[in-house]
Write a structure and sequence with these properties.
It is built from 2 helices and 33 strands. By secondary structure, the chain is mostly beta strands. Among the domains are: about 150 residues, Sandwich (Immunoglobulin-like); about 170 residues, no CATH class. A 6-stranded mixed β-sheet has the order 2-3-8-7-5-6, with no helix packed on it. A 4-stranded antiparallel β-sheet has the order 9-33-32-31, with no helix packed on it. Strands 10-11-12-13 form a 4-stranded antiparallel β-sheet, with no helix packed on it. The chain is elongated, with a radius of gyration of 32 Å.
Length: about 500
């Protein structure tokens, strides 16, 4: 960033040397050059700016990098300081030519300092209030040139470890034209499929890229009455249970359906080309899969395993297992009670994952989300992105809806109540039975364009994972006709370089 400054100063020095030699009497021409304008102007360039350390304010302030935009006359930190950092009394280091006549900070409309001028020298200990309008003015030694820089010390206005659910981005489920009775959204490879029961019709909506516009509508002609909540999609087929629990399959995106010849209590979810479920064999509940892989035994479900009402099956992202892990949370156990555990499936068997079950409440139809959070580093004032599991919504044992968000930073083993920034906002209705997906999409930050260094191209857009929350039901069992978009605030931050 500063190499251009050094070039300017070097050129100025060369010009100055030229002027000095030209001022000497030339035998061939009686000409004297005394114009030092270029050199004088170059001395007003700032080549470096930094904060001085102050542990009472934040750790490692001197390591905060500042950009210097010579064209626009702006000095600023592209990566903002953590939310809540006090910038009313910060000391600075400024690097520029020592031959200037003055370097002064002009402060207006600050919280502590207003209409204040501070003369800066290398030994200056005066602090500066950056809550107002701060101008650094450099005046050349001859007084003929001055250069003004607006100095901005940016501080995040939101906690990076908080999820922003944008009410302005809320939309309705696709192609609902009457009274929404029920809905279920699933993911098939990179495609999203939203099945809605709208009045007397069953409509399958599909979209390749989840931008919430451009859904393809298909009214289904079904040879059975479906349980919409059982809708599942493997890599190559769609599945539904009818009202009697019979499993049906479609291999042509819902145009035709065939009876699989098995009856299940519930569909848990899809795993590659298989759909996982629970069937009742007399008084015993057993695991089942369709199509059954070679050697499949279909053993009895373990004590405490949910047989219905669990969260959607969510694939994990980790390096802990040799096979792809999938997880569920909550549900109704064989004895009719609600489950408060997290269970995992590795492609062959199920096992309980959560270890501090007393933290998680017993929930029916909660949402389990594989996402991120930010944890503040103990060595400096930066935040580190961590893979994080979230549990939201769901019905409590007393029939009320859970409004607390729970968090796990170790793949569902241990859980804690999330910090305030991760909790569901007041403008978002409580829910159960919704589906959530993490989708990477482009983030655009046009505000970065306002500080575009002339010699650097800023990054104004990048990929970030968003949470999309589909449908669900309110405490009265009424279907919610909504799609909510959420993103971790820290994922919207991006340095300009």
């Amino acid at each position: 960033m500063n190499k251009y400054i050094y070039i300017y100063i070097l050129l100025a020095a060369i010009v100055a040397m030229g002027f000095e030699s030209c001022n000497k009497k030339d035998d061939s021409a009686d000409i004297t050059i005394t114009d030092y304008s270029v050199y004088s102007s170059a001395t007003t360039l700032v080549s470096g700016f930094s904060l001085k350390d102050n542990e009472k304010v934040a750790s490692n302030l001197s390591k905060v990098q500042f950009a210097i935009d010579q064209d626009q006359g702006v000095i600023y930190n592209a990566d903002s300081l953590p939310r809540g950092t006090k910038v009313t009394a910060l000391c600075v280091d400024v690097t520029c030519a020592t031959t200037v006549s003055s370097r002064e900070f002009i402060i207006k409309n600050g919280t502590v300092q207003s209409d204040t001028v501070i003369q800066y020298t290398s030994s200056t200990k005066d602090s500066i209030d950056f809550t107002g309008d701060v101008t650094l003015r450099i005046t050349s030694r001859d007084g003929l040139h001055e250069r003004n820089y607006r100095v901005k010390v940016n501080v995040h206005k939101q906690d990076p470890d908080s999820i922003f659910w944008n009410v302005g981005s809320r939309s309705e489920l696709p192609n609902v034209t009457g009274t929404l009775i029920s809905s279920k959204t699933v993911r098939q490879n990179d495609k999203f499929l939203c099945l809605v029961h709208d009045n007397s019709s069953y409509v399958l909506n599909t979209i390749d890229t989840l931008m919430l516009e451009g859904w393809t509508k298909q009214v289904l002609t079904l040879p059975f009455v479906p349980q919409v909540g059982s809708f599942a999609a493997t890599a190559d087929a769609l599945y539904l249970l009818d009202q009697n629990g019979e499993l049906f399959k479609s291999g042509d995106m819902g145009l035709s359906w065939s009876d699989c010849g098995v009856a299940w209590n519930t569909i848990i979810g899809a795993y590659d080309t298989r759909v996982l479920g629970v069937k009742k064999d007399g008084s015993v509940f057993r695991h089942d899969e369709y199509p059954q892989p070679s050697g499949f035994a279909g053993g009895e479900v373990a004590e405490g395993f949910p047989v219905a009402g669990m969260s959607q099956l969510v694939r994990a992202r980790n390096e802990w297992t040799s096979s792809q892990q999938a997880m569920i949370m909550g549900g109704i156990k064989a004895d009719g009670g609600a489950c408060n555990a997290v269970w995992g499936y590795d492609g062959k068997r199920w096992g309980i994952i959560s270890q501090n079950a007393s933290v998680l409440p017993a929930l029916r139809n909660p949402v389990l989300i594989n996402y991120y959070s930010y944890v503040k580093s103990t060595s400096d004032n930066t935040f580190v992105k961590n893979l994080t599991w979230l549990v939201m919504g769901g019905l409590l044992s007393d029939g009320e809806i859970n409004t607390v968000t729970y968090v796990s930073h170790d793949q569902g083993i241990h859980w804690v109540k999330g910090e305030s920034g991760l909790q569901q906002p007041a403008h978002m209705p409580s829910f159960f039975g919704a589906q959530a997906f993490t989708v990477s999409r482009i983030v655009r930050n046009s505000s970065l364009l306002a500080y575009n260094p002339g010699h650097v191209t800023p990054v104004t857009q990048w990929d970030s994972p968003y949470i999309y929350l589909f449908g669900g039901y309110d405490v009265g069992g009424n279907a919610l006709n909504s799609i909510w978009e959420g993103i971790l605030v820290g994922l919207t931050y991006k340095p300009v370089f």
